[in-house]
Amino acid sequence: MSERQTGAWIKALRRLVRQVGLYPTGHPLTMEALLALRTATDDVVPEGGQVVVSAMDNAFFHNRTILPHVSLEYHSFIGELEERGVESMTAVHPVTDQDLLDVAAFLANASADFPADGSILLNERYLTPEDLEATPTSELRRSYVSSLDALRGVTGAMRADGKFEMAPVVQAVEGLFEQSMTQSSASLLLSTVKSHDEYTYYHSVNACILALAIGRMIGIEREHLIPIGVGAVLHDIGKTAVPTATLNYPGRLNDDQWKEITVHPQEGALAILAAGGPGHEISATVAFEHHARFDGSGYPGIHREKRPHVYSRAVAVADTYDAITTRRSYRRAETPNHALNALLMGAGSGYDPDLVRTFIDMMGIYPPGSILEYENGVAVVVSRSSEPGGPLDTLLVRDTQGNDIDPEPYALHPDDVRGQLLAQDSGIDPAALLESMDQAPVG
Ligand SMILES: [Fe+2]
Predict the structure, then answer these.
(1) Measured in angstroms, how far is the CA atom of residue 372 from the centroid of ligand 1?
(2) For 120, phi and psi rounded to 5 degrees?
């Protein structure tokens, strides 16, 4: 069993839950989702045996093994299971389609109760406190999850009544800050987590991690660094004031739509000022200026005479880097190395050239999360090399035949890199390797 297989099962289950909640049972999309869950189930439930998937303490478990990355990626689904009172699901071979549909209907709240004697049993087994034991990086993940939660809360509050509470956001960013102090490589690797469904939340937390790292590199004190991080997390919060139809508009925006979009930095800054909190003027400045370019262009168009604040310029670099490395509906993701090149091309016009240089120094030519091909297979960079131009700290994850292998530390010389792969094409998820990194003598 790999985390990937159980992750695929959880993903397929969640998809079926969504479909069952939206469409009647016979709907083609429901049947398609059922088929996908069928396949995923056959991959995880051993013949003649059973498997227990639990959701407890903000994490998914396969039997007793924590699935740290899946827990992060499908964090909101853990909450949904909790709401339905489900802590564990025991799937017994052979699992029937009807039972898969029943469990999905129950989780979708489409049926009130669940048959107690099928091939899937709910809350049959519980994990003990020992099973919930912490891993070295679990605090870092917890901070990440708290930041996602804080952002969900802020977004909900903004949509409901146009204002929000600052305290949970500050607390979450403080957590990210503390963790990134002690585990800087791990936090950079963690910042490669992506979510297609909740793009904005994950992107904002990643931008925050990267902005905190840049800020530390240029010697900004904690007192200012936290509000910068808060500004990074909240940089797009003003988008709650933009009509959804405009935000999701697939084509070229007309003038009116563009006007609607370009108010979001100002709306965000105003909301932050209204919320208050320590250093909130800094956070508001960062949100206000995150689309202002180094040369004074960009929007809101008031920076012609002077440059945006250096804190805003740092967040702009972090924001851009994560956006480029993320897949969106209208364009593919690019490799980390490509994103650095894009920043370099824009240095002096779009971005502060000194900060771009600092950022590249910090990330290395092949930043953490880069998936590299070389003579003996495929390796993922887990932290930047300790000497400029020196070997990269990587984990070897695939052999020359293309088979996945147990991650193995490997010092890869940059000259030996033959090519770079995208996470989405390679099926390799860099952030999922955090656990292997804990054991590896790197970072
Ligand atoms: Fe924005």
Answers:
(1) 31
(2) -125, 125
- 88-92/65-67 β-pairing: unpaired
Separation of 287 CA from ligand 1 center, angstroms?
Answer: 8
Q: What is the pLDDT of residues 188-235, one digit of tens each?
A: 999 998 887 788 999 999 999 999 999 999 999 999 999 999 999 999
Residues 340 and 256 in one domain: yes
| Span from the CA of 70 to the centroid of ligand 1 (angstroms) | 28
- For 393, phi then psi, to 5°, come to -80, 110
Q: E strands of 241-386, at which residues?
A: 371-374, 377-383
**352-405: per-residue pLDDT in tens?**
999 999 999 999 999 999 999 999 999 999 988 777 778 999 999 999 998 889
Using the mean position of ligand 1's atoms as its centre, give its distance from the Cα of residue 72 in Å.
Answer: 24
Tell me, in angstroms, the distance from the centre of ligand 1 to residue 210's CA: 16
CA 211–ligand 1 middle distance (angstroms): 15
Q: How far is the CA of 322 from the centre of ligand 1 (A)?
A: 13
Query: Which residue, among 177, 131, 183, has the nearest Cα to 435 in the 3D structure?
Result: 183
Task: Output the CA 289–ligand 1 centroid distance in Å.
Answer: 9
Ligand 1 centre to CA of 58 (Å) is 29
CB-CB contact of 18 with 31 (8 Å): no
Looking at the fold, whether 235 and 182 belong to one and the same domain comes out as yes
Query: Same structural domain for residues 380 and 346?
Result: no
Same structural domain, 262 and 388: no
Place of tokens 């139809």: 245
Which amino acid, residue 435?
A: E
* pTM listed for this prediction: 0.83
Ligand 1 centroid – CA 204 distance (Å): 10
Residues 418 and 299 in one domain: no
**How far does the centroid of ligand 1 lie from the alpha carbon of residue 391, in Å?**
36
Last residue of a domain, one of 132, 166, 195: 132
243 and 389 inside one domain: no
Q: What's the gap in Å between 316 CA and the centre of ligand 1? A: 10
- CA–centroid distance, 290 to ligand 1, in Å, is 6
Question: 151-167: per-residue pLDDT in tens?
Answer: 999 999 999 999 999 99
Residue 131 DSSP class: G
Give the CA dihedral 149, 151, 155, 160, nearest 10 degrees: 50
Structural domain range at position 433: 371-439
